[in-house]
Design a protein that fits this description.
4-stranded mixed sheet
């Protein structure tokens, strides 16, 4: 799947759960990961149904933050040690409550 956010082309790639691309910035293995450099979302091919939708929405939030260059703004507002946890919190809130905002 390919898509565009604010003129930035992204691609979703499904990988095996043991793929090295599913290791996040903290060094932990995850079920999905967004790479802002290659503009790729990597998702474990074991996900399906509602969980897949929630995870994909979460990763799409990372794409929005990168594509609209919002991380710089975010980083100016918070301490360096909180960058990752605040970014993850934002993406989780949007992914978890997405259905409430659908019009």
């Amino acid at each position: 799947m390919q898509f565009n956010v604010n003129g930035v082309n992204w691609k979703v790639i499904f990988v095996t759960p043991d793929s090295s691309v599913l290791i996040d910035r903290t060094g932990k293995r995850t079920i999905a990961c967004t790479d802002p450099v290659t503009k790729r979302i990597y998702i474990s091919n074991t996900l399906h149904g509602p969980m897949l939708k929630t995870v994909l929405r979460h990763e799409l939030c990372h794409c929005v933050l990168v594509s609209y260059d919002l991380l710089g703004d975010l980083h100016r507002m918070i301490d360096r040690g909180d960058y990752i946890s605040v970014e993850e919190f934002i993406c989780n809130v949007i992914a978890d409550h997405y259905a409430e905002f659908r019009i």
